[in-house]
Design a protein that fits this description.
The complex is a heterodimer of chains A (289) and B (330).
Chain A lengths: L1 H28 L6 H19 L7 H23 L4 H23 L14 E4 L2 E4 H23 L1 H11 L1 H6 L4 H26 L6 H16 L4 H21 L5 H15 L15
Antiparallel strand pairs in A: 1-2
Helix pairs in contact in A: 1-5, 1-8, 1-9, 1-10, 2-3, 2-4, 2-8, 2-9, 3-8, 5-6, 5-8, 6-8, 9-10, 9-11, 10-11
Chain B lengths: L1 H26 L1 H4 L2 H27 L7 H18 L3 H23 L4 H21 L1 H4 L5 E2 L7 H28 L1 H11 L1 H6 L4 H27 L1 E2 L1 H4 L2 H14 L6 H19 L4 H15 L4 H23 L1
Antiparallel strand pairs in B: 1-2
The chains are: A mainly alpha (289), B mainly alpha (330).
Chain lengths: 289, 330
């Protein structure tokens, strides 16, 4: 029982990190970013190649993958996304789906569909606390994910740029009147979202095997968590991530691993119907009726 | 008076001529083209039907039913299970597929259609995932992840080609015909009203919930029929084949590309994108999705309103020029 809870919590940390960037982009820009899946995948591959070619520890390569995806995200937003953002959510969703197809297929051509994994020397070690096994790697990933989420939350609330992002989220028009360049804020927000996805990807590469479609299953979880926690809410993403981690962990034990997606989506539909703005969300964007 | 009558007669004759040409063009291919091209055109017709079906939700009601492909899967598995387990005749099974998919949507619709915009879109993606997982887990009935073999079409290869060609053609015409009927009916006007402004429509006396549920049921029923036909055509089913979200989003893009909310736009979009897709598939097997992705991005960037809007612009320009000439004469 305790083991199930511990497993759920540890996975929940990574889920939260996966969801934060996605939730941010959705909450601030009103963009459902399908390409988030590809950014996770690219982050994972960057860590994988740095480990295999140069022997970099995957935890050390996190800043590299974040920086690389920040640049890519900035480019995608400023070159294409910003041009169509006025056509509304559905068009941008289709656009990011196209970007996702391009990146996933490119990865498939470059690196094939082989399953790959990173196996640092400390991979299998775990800590036993009163009969509960806590794998070191998963614990480290959990802590690191939390640290990143907290740092990011501080950035939003304490810096001028962070405040500008929040202002844009609340009312783009009013933000513009006070001198915020919203096209830049959009590009920056999108880039940060991609960088956070990359960090999650790097961590995922240590825990799971990776292939070009690795991001998809995490994208669906990011959906669920964002809706569960509330659009654009960081504490919401944390809570949602942990709840989903626990729900999946229990579902695996009680009804079998084949049903975990059905459980998470059942949860999603339930939340959507009962409390559409999410557990910690306010009515932001998206027009929930 | 007589001048306007003769012009309306000329217009009618022109339409009849166009219709005749189209009818001939639709019937001829399977008699003259190679097996490969008949298969390609059959799949164009299938996508035309799917794009028309999703258009009823996307174009008329303004609900982004991204996961509508769930009903395709439900239809496909209905046909498979009825034919394999209960030896039901194909056409009976097909009918059941349409009815079941429609009922499924009507049931879900009560809860899910309360959501708007992206929330609804995502909920439908969730429905697709969950339905796929349920089908996979109902192992004894559906063959689960191992897949299931649907009985082959009894008949020669040429006969089989004809059968599926005309089946898909019929389904596409059914979908387009339904769309046409909806576009002229109370339902169509009500849907357009609620797309523009849901509260406004409801104040004006549109029973929004009922209209939305009906629209989704019709859209899902048509999608289910096409899924059922596809199952018989493919003759081997696995959940990922028919609950394929990429395919779902593709039909969605086809509807937008052609012109959401128009009657024939989605068919045009489907033919263009699928033909392009097929040509790319032959040439760049590896980079198929990549090129498709680029096409998607270009469509969104340059023709976000769809082909039909281009035609409308063209017609408006022509009309302006003509009336301009008339004024110059006078």
């Amino acid at each position: 029982m305790t083991q199930i809870v511990v497993n759920g919590l540890l996975t929940g940390g990574v889920y939260a990190l996966v969801a934060v960037g996605f939730s941010l982009v959705w909450g601030v820009m009103n963009v459902v970013n399908i390409a988030h899946a590809s950014y996770i995948m690219l982050g994972a591959y960057i860590s994988y190649w740095l480990f295999h070619l140069y022997g970099w520890d995957p935890f050390l390569s996190i800043p590299v993958s974040m920086a690389a995806l920040f640049v890519l995200g900035y480019l995608v937003a400023s070159v294409v996304l910003n041009r169509v953002i006025r056509y509304g959510l559905v068009m941008t969703l289709v656009l990011t789906f196209g970007v996702d197809l391009i990146l996933q297929n490119a990865a498939l051509i470059l690196w094939s569909a082989d399953y790959r994994s990173i196996t640092p020397s400390y991979a299998g070690a775990s800590l036993a606390v009163g009969g509960v096994m806590i794998p070191y790697v998963r614990f480290a990933v959990f802590l690191l994910a939390l640290v990143l989420v907290v740092l990011f939350s501080l950035f939003l609330s304490k810096t001028r740029t962070g405040n500008a992002i929040q202002a844009t989220a609340l009312n783009p028009f009013a933000a513009q009147l006070t001198g915020v360049r919203i096209d830049r804020i959009y590009a920056l927000t999108y880039a940060i979202g991609a960088a956070l996805a990359a960090a999650a990807g790097s961590m995922i590469s240590v825990i799971y095997t990776i292939q070009p479609q690795v991001g998809n299953v995490f994208l669906t979880r990011a959906f669920v968590i964002t809706v569960l926690g509330g659009l654009g809410s960081i504490p919401g993403a944390l809570l949602g991530g942990v709840l989903l981690g626990l729900a999946e962990s229990f579902a695996t034990v009680t009804v079998g691993i084949g049903w975990s997606q059905a459980v998470s989506f059942g949860l999603l539909v339930l939340i959507l119907v009962v409390r559409p703005q999410g557990l910690l969300g306010r009515r932001f964007f998206g027009g929930v009726g | 008076m007589s001048a306007s009558q003769s012009s309306s007669f000329a217009r009618r004759a022109a339409w009849a001529f166009v219709a005749l040409v189209l009818a001939v063009a639709a019937v001829l291919p399977p008699f003259y083209l190679s097996g490969y091209w008949v298969r390609v055109i059959t799949s164009l017709l299938m996508y035309g039907a799917l794009a028309s079906a999703i258009n009823i939700m996307v174009g008329f009601a303004g609900y982004p039913a991204l996961g509508n492909i769930a009903f395709f899967g439900v239809g496909a598995y209905t046909v498979a299970v009825l034919m394999v387990k209960y030896n039901v005749d194909f056409f009976v099974a097909l009918l059941a597929a349409g009815v079941l998919a429609g009922l499924y949507a009507a049931l879900l619709g009560r809860a899910v259609l309360r959501l708007r915009g992206a929330y609804f879109g995502i909920a439908t993606i969730g429905i697709n995932h969950a339905t796929s997982e349920i089908v996979t887990n109902l192992d004894s009935l559906t063959g689960g992840g191992r897949g299931t073999i649907v009985p082959f079409y009894p008949g020669g290869i040429q006969e089989e080609r004809m059968f599926f060609y005309f089946l898909m053609l019929g389904l596409m015409l059914l979908a387009v015909g339904t769309t046409w009927l909806i576009s002229r009916s109370r339902l169509g006007y009500g849907l357009r009203a609620l797309k523009a402004d849901q509260e406004g429509a409801s104040v004006m006396g549109v029973n929004t919930t009922r209209f939305k549920v009906i629209a989704w049921t019709v859209s899902a029923g048509l999608t289910g029929l096409v899924g059922g036909a596809y199952a018989y055509w493919l003759s081997f089913l696995e959940p990922p084949y028919v609950f394929d979200i990429t395919m779902g989003v593709k039909t969605y893009i086809m509807a937008i590309l052609g012109g959401a909310g128009t009657v024939v736009g989605p068919v045009l979009g489907a033919f263009t994108l699928e033909l392009l897709s097929e040509l790319i598939w032959g040439r760049f097997l590896e980079a198929h999705m990549l090129v498709l992705g680029i096409v998607v991005v270009l469509v969104v960037l340059f023709i976000p309103q769809g082909f039909m809007s281009l035609f409308a612009q063209l017609a408006a320009t022509l009309k302006r020029r003509r009336t301009g000439e008339v004024r110059a004469d006078g």
